[in-house]
Amino acid sequence: MTFPTIAIIGAGFGGLCMAAELRRAGIDSFTVFEKADDVGGIWRDNTYPGCGCDVPSHLYSFSFEKYRDVSLRYPEQREILAYLQQVTDKYDLRRHLRTGAEIVSADYSEATGRWVIRTATGEEHVVDIVVSAVGQLHRPKLPEIAGREDFRGAAFHTARWDHGVDLTGKDVAVIGTGSSAAQLLPHVARAARHVDVYQRTPNWVVPKPGAEFGRFTRWAFSRFPFTQSLYRALTYFAADIALSPVITRGWSARPAEWVARRHLRRGVADPALRAKLTPDYPIGCKRVLIDNAFYPTLNRDNVNLVTDGIAGMTATGIETVDGKHRAVDAVVYATGFRTTEFLVPMRVRGRGGVSLDERWADGAEAYLGMALPEFPNLFLVHGPNTILGHNSNIFMIECQVGHVLNCLRMLSGPGRLEVRPDAMREYRRSLEKAIGRTVWDGCQSWYRTAAGRVTNPWPASTVRYRRLTRRSPAAAFRVTST
Question: Under CATH, to which class is 148-333 assigned?
Answer without folding.
Answer: alpha beta
